[in-house]
Amino acid sequence: MKIINKKVINDVGGVxxxxxxxxxxxxxxxxxxxxxxxxxxxxxxxxxxxxxVNTDKDKGVVSLIFQExxxxxxxxxxxxxxxxxxxxxxxxxxxxxxxxxxxxxxxxGGVGIAExxxxxxxxKEAGNNITTILGSRNKELLILEAExxxxxxxxxxMTDDGSYGRKGFTTDMLKELLSKDKYDLIYxxxxxxxxxxxxxxxxxxxxxxxxxxxxxxxxxTGMCGCCRVSVSGEVKFSCIDGPDFDAHGVDWEELEKRNxxxxxxxxxxCNLFPAS
Amino acid sequence: xxxxxxxxxxxxxxxRVGNFDEVVKGYSEEExxxxxxxxxxxKNPLCISGCPVGIDIKKFIFHITQKDYxxxxxxxxxxxxxxxxxxxxxxxxxxxxxxxxLTKKGSPFASQQAINIHFLERFVGDYGKxxxxxxxxxxxxxxxxxxxxxxxxxxxxxxxxxxxxRKGVKVDIFESLHKTGxxxxxxxxxxxLPWDVLDFExxxxxxxxxxxxxxxxxxxxxxxxxxxxxxxxxxxLGLGAGVPSFLGIKGENLxxxxxxxxxxxxxxxxxxxxxxxxxxxxxxxxxxxxxGGGNTAMDSARVALRLQKIRGLSLxxxxxxxxxxxxxxxxxxxxxxxxxxxxxxxFLVQPKEFxxxxxxxxxxxxxxxxxxxxxxxxxxxxxxxxEGSEFELDCDLCVIAVGLKANQILIKAxxxxxxxxxxxxxxxxxxxxxxxxxxxxxxxIVGGEGTVIEAMGMAKKASKAIIDELSK
Lengths: 276, 472
What we know:
The structure holds two protein chains of two kinds. By secondary structure, chain A is α/β, with parallel strands linked by helices. Helix content of chain A is about 30%, strand content about 30%. Chain A has nine helices and 15 strands. Chain A has helices spanning about 25-30, 70-80, 110-125, 145-150, 170-180, 190-205, 240, 250-260, 265-270; strands at about 5-10, 15-25, 35-40, 50-55, 60-65, 85-90, 105-110, 130-135, 155-160, 165, 185-190, 210, 230, 235, 245. The longest helix of chain A has 14 residues, at about 110-125. The relative contact order of chain A is 0.13. In chain B, the strands form five sheets. Chain B has a five-stranded parallel sheet with strand order 5-4-3-6-18. By secondary structure, chain B is an alpha/beta fold. The chains are: A alpha/beta, B alpha/beta. At the A-B interface, helix 1, strand 6, strand 13, helix 8 and helix 9 of A face strand 7 and helix 12 of B.
């Protein structure tokens, strides 16, 4: 649970994305792409889920990449090499189903780009042809382009302001690709509105699509149901049934609302302890 | 002349709803002596048959009358590892006290007149704790070469570990949460079971040499097979029943509808009632509804009431239950406590549908009235819906407390482990050994939702079988 390396990947315009490499040989030994960990920064902290971005089995190290967006991720970003997390448990959730699908499109937005990286590598390794679409607000905010480039046969960058790659949404590119060719799978991680749009577009083209959902969790072992999501009319727990789900079945509106259930408290605690 | 039962001292309802301090203060020595003196010392004591682990109740109460509290303590400890815990959480009115000769025949639970065995047990347990009485270790050199993995640090796991460690077996307890105690920590609120009582028992196990490994989820980070490869001779599964049941009605995923486990875990394990000092939030509402009639329903109702008080809202928490008070499975004492504190009850009410606002927060619960029909498989009269009885209740926060099922992760990761239709582990009823040789199980993962003392009974059986096998 000791942090052995820290890298601020991005720190522009109030958006700070940080990578922590953490010693945990037990988790590293078992972790597969798509799985996550639960962690607590300190004894009084919240339990939050973060996707495992990289695992080094030999060194027994796992890497997490997160945007310092809320109180807990900001506190996490204050930690330095040598510091120890209060709690770290994993690997949790089902791994992404890795096999040879054929032609695969990966769609990553914002910090979700980090989460598609291990899946991209594994899918490529399994013999898939990978086309990756990355989206960010602008050029500065784009992360892991080089890493994903080497894990893909083809890569497309989309920025909101057109400062890099093409101007527009990831789904604009997705639509273009799907209208020209047939793909066997789409895998997407990013902000809910983006994944929702990916689901809409891919449904139109009848292409199988997985998304990794970021529901709120407490224990993450199936005991609280905080992370329940409706998928194809059934109630599922993201922690033990997911986090990957069929994008076409997800009740996005419900997920979006449930993820805002503590937005008042979040604002309050961030105002109270701005420096901590 | 019949002597009246000695009432136990309690914090007043008014003060206790403002905090999470223990409500029942327990007997003083004088009170314990008076209550013990009420025991008839029956020739054929019925109470013992009501105890799931067969504590010699008559004897320990006799010891109390003789002021031999040591003797009383060791009498209880022959059968019960955690008298201070069980004296606080045992549903005595359905067990020993119901069997007590002073309970009216045919009564569904103990009469008021029945001896307050649980309060006496607690008195003795706390005496033992305060005077550092410990059951002598029986460490044998030959056991020290064996390592046993105990999965889960709830009542079953703690009891099994203690029994094994006392014999000199090396025990590692694996716990997936960051704190030990299982349901005793995340489920039962501190106003019923204070943390120091639990910590005392856990610290005692640590002193015995039990090694606690928190933040470790067996089933994900390691398989049972790998534990054996790693050198463990036996494995004990005390996984618990932690998967919450929901109602399966429309609108149940609206915001501020909690499973009882989520609500209690946030408040108990994560100390959300101290937000923002502790960083885990929990919401509260002006009109809180709790659905269910068991202990977790009472616990969550009383937690909700305390949150309302702490956050300056008027106290308005209502329990809705589909049968009547008599059929409620909760401890009578908790129902009484809940009522004293101001919890309201709506009986013979079935939830039908939640209605939310534009932001996805619950606003109303549409309900139906019911009446009692014929008894069902549980022997309780089945609620039958009255046609056209639909009505609405204001509801801005709801806790669903309608039962818990077996924890799934390790079971799903171990397909060779045989389970029944409830996903509970199937075991030999004597040895508690599962379908996998060397893997034993006990507690709620075997019997479904039960009590602390039942879990302990199973864990003791398993530890005995493990010791027997290791002796071979």
